[in-house]
Amino acid sequence: MATMKEIARLAGVSQATVSRVINGAENVHPEIRERVMRWVRELDYQPNANARSLKQRRSNLLGVVLPGISNPFFPDVVHAVLRESYRHGRSVLLFESGGNAYHEWRCIQRLYAHRVEGMLLVPVDPEAPHLKRLKSMEIPAVVLTQEIDGFPSVSIDHREGGRLVARHFLDLGHVDVAFLGARRDPKLAGFRAALLDAGIPFGDERVIECRAWHEEATYEAYLRTKEFFQQAGRPPVSALFAYNDLAAIGALRAFEELGLSVPDDVSLAGFDNTSLSAVARPALTTVAQPTQEIGRIATDLLLEWIESGEADESPVTLVPRLVVRESTTGAMVRAAGEASR
Amino acid sequence: MATMKEIARLAGVSQATVSRVINGAENVHPEIRERVMRWVRELDYQPNANARSLKQRRSNLLGVVLPGISNPFFPDVVHAVLRESYRHGRSVLLFESGGNAYHEWRCIQRLYAHRVEGMLLVPVDPEAPHLKRLKSMEIPAVVLTQEIDGFPSVSIDHREGGRLVARHFLDLGHVDVAFLGARRDPKLAGFRAALLDAGIPFGDERVIECRAWHEEATYEAYLRTKEFFQQAGRPPVSALFAYNDLAAIGALRAFEELGLSVPDDVSLAGFDNTSLSAVARPALTTVAQPTQEIGRIATDLLLEWIESGEADESPVTLVPRLVVRESTTGAMVRAAGEASR
DNA sequence: CTGAAAGCGCTAACAG
DNA sequence: CTGTTAGCGCTTTCAG
Fold this sequence. Notes:
2 copies of one chain form a homodimer. Chain A is built from 14 helices and 12 strands. Chain A has 3 domains: 4-47, 434 Repressor (Amino-terminal Domain); 58-156 and 290-318, Rossmann fold (3-Layer(aba) Sandwich), CATH 3.40.50; 158-289 and 323-339, Response regulator (Rossmann fold). The first copy, chain A, has helices at residues 4-11, 15-22, 30-42, 49-56, 73-87, 101-113, 130-137, 158-172, 186-197, 217-230, 245-258, 275-279, 291-308, 331-339; strands at residues 61-66, 91-96, 118-121, 141-144, 153-156, 177-181, 207-209, 239-242, 267-269, 286-288, 316-318, 321-323. Helices cover 47% and strands 14% of the residues of chain A. In chain A, strand 1, helix 5 (73-87) and strand 2 form a beta-alpha-beta unit. Chain A has 341 residues and is of the alpha/beta class. The longest helix of chain A is centred in the C-terminal third of the chain and has 18 residues, at 291-308. The mean pLDDT of chain A is 94. The N and C termini of chain A lie far apart (84 Å). Chain A has a 6-stranded parallel β-sheet, sandwiched between helices. In chain A, strands 7-6-8-9 form a 4-stranded parallel β-sheet. In chain A, strands 10-12 form a two-stranded antiparallel sheet. In chain A, helix 5 (73-87) packs parallel to helix 13 (291-308). Strand 2 (91-96) of chain A pairs antiparallel with strand 2 (91-96) of chain B.
């Protein structure tokens, strides 16, 4: 591995001069510059970023921590992050927390060890105590896909997303609806609120609990959904809202096995508008997040913070968009209405 | 940001002692160790990995370069890579080449600048001249999903994958088949070979050219497929083999628009067995790659190389597996046969 | 315009 | 068992 010293020796100049050439300083004689550059090219020399980082107190490193890259929602945001980071001369370290708060903290520590200039975080638990510790590290960190006090964030309005689905169900004539996901999911809050506004009570017996960020989200959703619908004395359900597309796919399988047709027997909506939803059978009605925007904006925010030294903590809230496809209909409710008339 | 010097001062010992404690050296008095550790915990101190890297000539960094994380094939391999790297105390830098050879080289250079201990590469072009340069960098690099001379690699046997599809088509009674993808794709070679073995000629007029690794693989496949099937005087085609699931999805859309039913009018097979293929309508017949295995084995290989200092260049070849779902059938061919009788 | 020298935070001999 | 010291490869005053 070539070092600057070596280049200096070869070119017959001092290390300082090589440094100047490498860093494009103006005050170097053209001839010398050329002589140095020749050796740089000859040896494919690249300055050691670690040494540089040490001296300049600036690592050109950014860190990303997310539950798991396998959820098809994340590749798109990572793609945008990578793109934007690269454009600004930063390299990115990627970590998976596996949806585990303690492990998330370990990842953060690792990033800190590398002295990343900033990090992008998709936190497992907004209440996790390590977030305070992160704060005290004084390293720029922006939160993705949710709002957390004390951090800048970029996310969509999840409550509004839930509301969108509720209103869609309502418009279709559904009254007996259910939610598949976590009890404290803001999507559920919005969903429930819109229902209540329409005079439709929505009790906890209508949420099918299912752990978010779970590695095998699809499978768990499949299981929980199947259990729920087989359960004696369960409330009637003509439309189900799943907390994400992965879970919706699981529910889809469950319905298939239960002999329930989507959307003829039960309507189904997902969330995220991942590639899966367009391709599923039937194509899933879902709520789109501007995935790449999220990644891009978050990265830009982070970079600005790094460069300016001060955070803009006002959360960026993007708007969700309902994408209606084939998995939701009101036909079944209307038919029932006519039959009972 | 705390430094070792600071901890040393606070604990009233020398920096060397702190270093010993941090690195778990045996020969430190328990009391002193505890005193130091107290401060380490107090300040959430983490040794600066860059400084360490400089001194130890070992960065604990691994690099990954792939065309784009958005192809659903990659998240799973990255997941495995991340997992395995973390287990071995390494952090990973992720780069996207965007399927561009020059950009790939830039990414490699960046990784080199960070003095990664090794890299995992999904090369854009096996012939790209920069691979030689990479070689001369003398930094361990293993290639994923293809074999390249001079590098260890882990991939499936793509020719065999192509053969599998050809034989499946043949078994179903198809004779008029086509390939959607790049002319020099080894899958095509295997596909063609199996066809030829069965006495079925397969000329270039039956390959629908479509750029691999393209950002918008699905869309391009859609376009090319549509063009091809609308073309006057095109050869008859009752079964199409797409180079990956993304492309197959594109073809699916094209067939939909053309009013051709899959599989009743034309059978369709993809490649990779991504989550998309199971969820598509109709569910795609495809060839499965052991995605996580690829990531895990490649990482292990790389780590061994790093640790031992010598490469095992014999390529690891994993076996592809045909996954038959709903998008392929022989019914249509049989019907035609009966009709002509 | 160029070189000498100090030092970023850490590890690793080497003394003691 | 502990401290002193010399760099790792680079940038950056400060002289010249």
